[in-house]
Amino acid sequence: MTQLPQSTDRKMGLVIDLDTCVGCHACVISCKGWNTENYGAPLSDQNPYGADPSGTFLNRVHSYEVQPPEGHAQLIHFPKSCLHCEDAPCVTVCPTGASYKRSEDGIVLVNESDCIGCGLCAWACPYGARELDLAEGVMKKCTLCVDRIYNDNLPEVDRVPSCVRTCPAGARHFGDLGDPDSEVSQLVAERGGMDLMPEMGTKPVNKYLPPRPKDRIEDQTDILAPLLAPVAEEPKGFIAWLDKALEKL
Amino acid sequence: MHPAPSVILFTTLSGLGFGLLAFLGLGLPDVSGWVAFVFFAIAFGLAVGGLLASTFHLGHPERAWKAFSQWRTSWLSREGCSAVAALILMGIYAIGVIFMDQRWGLLGWLGAALSLFTVFTTSMIYAQLKTIPRWNMNLTPAMFLSFSLAGGALLAGQNTTAIVLLLIAGAVQLAYWKQGDTALANSGTNIGTATGLGSRGKVRAFEPPHTGSNYLLREFVHVVGRKHAAKLRMLALGFGFVLPLALLLVPMHDVVIKHLLALLAVIAHLIGIATSRWLFFAQAEHVVGLYYGKR
């Protein structure tokens, strides 16, 4: 049913730390690995070893350069997957009821046997979180590893989404964002977690932690620094003559 | 957006077909027997042909019947339901007109209303999408409806009405282009809000996620042919509205030549509308392109 639930018991989602992400793409690979072998149709590749390879991914890492008005530019690695929005526009546009949001934990899923592959949900998503699998003709998206997080056959430490389990930098956190006391909610409160494109009115569950301000070298000058200051502001002698001569050329 | 030929064909043909059905439902022209048969055959051919074309781009066309279930929330589902309802009502109405020389007025009115509602639902599939500011405008349904009505009047041979409706449709087309050209800039969405980093400085896409292309880039970041947009707009306007208007206004008393000119007007209109529809897709900027630095 493509009507969104009035509210969900929990709001399971990810918190992604843009300060910590090193852009290694390990989450991309582990996501593809887990999700191609488990829930639903495999994530196919087209022409993977040819001249123009492409394939279905549920998680992709972009990199952005931010140039502040003053100071150095900063490089920010930016993992992006489904944000499991509270007002998910991808769900309500679905004509068959294949797309749905679970009332128990807020996870947005696709029932692949009902999906006709019209692509309208991907059109409705501002974040590019849904990709139509070319081999299978159905829409693929992040499931928040629904087949891991409740899986009693896995050791408890593995009952988190594959991307979170894999991240070597600890830049990805998983938990209930509907519970203000949860670790993820506290992290969001502490670090000023933000929404992507809030103006779209999608109310994303996933939050992004902004990069912390960079240390500036001026703030931590060594006490010996004054001794290293340039001795001669104005050149003298041979250097002064050379300077003048070169200028005249 | 990727201009898929199936969707361009569908929206162009079915828009015209439902437009003609709307006029036939109102009894314009008031025909019966074989003449009515030809009119209804053209209308149903365009409407049904368009609907069939629309299933070509589906990943699983064999499951298309499931799309009738979610009319409570989905404009695509509403379109399917409305189209089938309109075709059934107009089918029954056509039987009366063609074979029994009976015009069931109420049925015709209902069928006409549903035909136009179908065109409206088609337009709302696009107009509802906040992700594509150029579509997310009131002028989108206005454009689809005015094109459908103008084309319908043209096909139904309602010359005076067609002249008025063509003028209106042409004006709506120009207004749509004017408002659409600034829609993305006015939406307030940019790479800064997309990444949430805009308050920190100037954001630039440094490196894409993969060296190769992907579904998102192919489907949403169509840029081919944008450089010809201005020329294509002139062609769309010329073929879609100016030429049909000129052909309708030629003073002619010979019935055969008059019909020939009307046929030419319809063909020109079709070419123009298809061109306009191609631009509708090719020029539409999906905000996901911002993540790739492609806007």
UniProtKB/TrEMBL annotation, chain A:
The 4Fe-4S ferredoxin-type domain is annotated at 12-42, 73-104, 106-135
**Domain of life, per lineage:** Bacteria
What does the UniProt keyword field contain?
A: 4Fe-4S, Iron, Iron-sulfur, Metal-binding
- GO MF entry, a single one: 4 iron, 4 sulfur cluster binding
Pfam families this protein is in? Fer4_11, Fer4_4
Xref: PANTHER family: PROTEIN NRFC, PROTEIN NRFC HOMOLOG
Query: What protein am I looking at?
Result: 4Fe-4S dicluster domain-containing protein
Automatic annotation (TrEMBL), chain B:
Listed GO cellular component terms?
dimethyl sulfoxide reductase complex; plasma membrane
Gene3D superfamilies named among the record's database cross-references: Formate dehydrogenase/DMSO reductase domain (1.20.1630.10)
Its source organism is Ruegeria sp. PrR005
Q: What is the lineage of its organism?
A: Bacteria, Pseudomonadati, Pseudomonadota, Alphaproteobacteria, Rhodobacterales
Per the record, the domain of life is Bacteria
Keywords (alphabetical) are: Membrane, Transmembrane, Transmembrane helix
Membrane spanning stretches = 7-28, 34-59, 80-100, 106-127, 234-253, 259-280
Q: List the GO biological process terms.
A: anaerobic electron transport chain
- Keyword Cytoplasm set for record: no
Protein name (Swiss-Prot/TrEMBL)? Dimethyl sulfoxide reductase anchor subunit
The yes or no answer to whether the keyword Zinc is present is no
Q: Which GO terms describe its molecular function?
A: dimethyl sulfoxide reductase activity
